[in-house]
Amino acid sequence: MLPALTCESLTCVRPQWNESGLAQVRDVTASFPPGTLTGFHGPGGCGKGLLLNILGLLEPPDSGRIRIQEHPALGLPAEEARQLRNEAFGFLFDQPCLLPSFSVAENVAMPLFRICGGDAQTARLRTLEVLDFCGIAQHECTLVGRLDPADQRRACLARALVHRPGILIAISPRGAARLIPLLRLAAHQTGLCVLWAGERNELAPHADRLIEMRDGRITEDIPTNA
Asked: Which pLDDT does position 15 carry in this prediction?
């Protein structure tokens, strides 16, 4: 079985990365099979967030290679790169980025129309399916702004899964640790490849694999008994 995602010799140095100052990735090589949840952890500034931004094609590396299955993913024309990122990946970020005046179903269905096209009935059925999986089917018609923070996180997860990406990247999503077991279930049931950057104590009970980073390098890469 082909890995969902591989990287070779990734290197990237960003002197000012968001508000955290220096961030770096140094000569990282790894592969990530489908159907697994890999947790990345390490001290602040270790490079795990930058690495996942690079793997998700949100940030270009200074050097190195990334492949999605057998296909090179770097150096593509801008439109091809955007299409590949939208189709292959789902994302969970620190902020929910939902539209509060739209219903839960409307927010979740947006990637289906933006990425996949298709008819409204098919989109509705898929939206209801993923809302049910995430445990918020009862909020289908609720305005997102009226949800509590926990259910907003579930709506974000539903939106990230709705277009059936092969890879889901979670970059230290605040207050979302309760979603880790659900994503592990999604990985094992559907073959989704999940990469989650967060706290070791939250990831260890559920991750199939734990990767520790320090100073931009992988210092430990171990399977778990989760």
From this structure: 86
What's the average model confidence in pLDDT over 138-146? 95
pLDDT tens by residue, 38-88: 999 999 889 999 999 999 999 999 999 999 998 999 999 989 999 999 999
Three-point CA angle 40, 181, 56, nearest 5°:
40
E strands within the chain?
5-14, 23-32, 37-41, 63-68, 71-72, 89-92, 167-171, 193-197, 209-214, 217-223
Spell out the domain ranges in the chain: 5-216
For residues 180-195, b (16+ Cβ closer than 10 Å) or e, as one string?
bebbbebbeeeebbbb
Instruction: Give this prediction's pTM.
Output: 0.94
pLDDT at 22: 83
First-residue to last-residue Cα distance in the chain: 22
**CA–CA dist 65, 74 (Å, integer):** 7
Asked if 171 and 92 count as a contact pair (C-beta separation under 8 A), the reply is yes
Provide the CATH number for the domain formed by 5-216 in this structure.
3.40.50.300
